[in-house]
Amino acid sequence: MPTLGELERAVMETLWSATAPVTARDVQDALAGRDLATTTVLTVLGRLERKGLVTRERDGRAHRYRSVASREDHVAELMRDALDAAPDRGAALARFLGSIPEDERAALRDLLD
Asked: Is RNA-binding one of the keywords UniProt gives this record (predicted)?
């Protein structure tokens, strides 16, 4: 799973929050507090597309962008990648479980049942 820079994460958050494919201008407007140029947003969207995280479709003269997978799918893939990198998956899982609050451990137990 490709890692994301801070601006890439912000763009992905915008795409994940959208209810339909969005234009680069829509992303720029959603990130208005960052004062980004349209070319910067297009560069980031292109990079995310090359990483396989975003697809685009032509809409007149513009393109509309959407995420390939949900935020939850992305996080799950990051977690799988982290476990794959661990020489001892059991130890890594034990450390992870020891680091989360009891209510989240209970939710995991419920999911496993």
From this structure: no
Please write the tens of the pLDDT for every residue from 57-104: 999 999 999 999 999 999 999 999 999 999 999 999 999 999 999 999
Angle, in degrees to the nearest 10, between helices 89-99 and 71-85: 130
Asked if the model's pLDDT at residue 37 lies above 90, the reply is yes
Among 40, 33, 31, smallest CA distance to 12 is for 31
Q: Which residues pair with 65 in a beta bridge?
A: 22, 56
For residues 52 and 66, the answer to whether their CB atoms sit within 8 Å is no
Tell me the CA distances in angstroms from 5 to 2, 39, 55, 74, one per residue in order: 10, 17, 18, 14
Whether 1 shows a pLDDT value over 80: the answer reads: no
**Whole-angstrom distance, CA of residue 46 vs CA of residue 99:** 36
Reported pTM: 0.84
Contact (Cβ atoms closer than 8 angstroms) between residue 16 and residue 72: no
* 8 Å CB contact between 57 and 64: yes
E strand or H helix at 31, and its extent? none
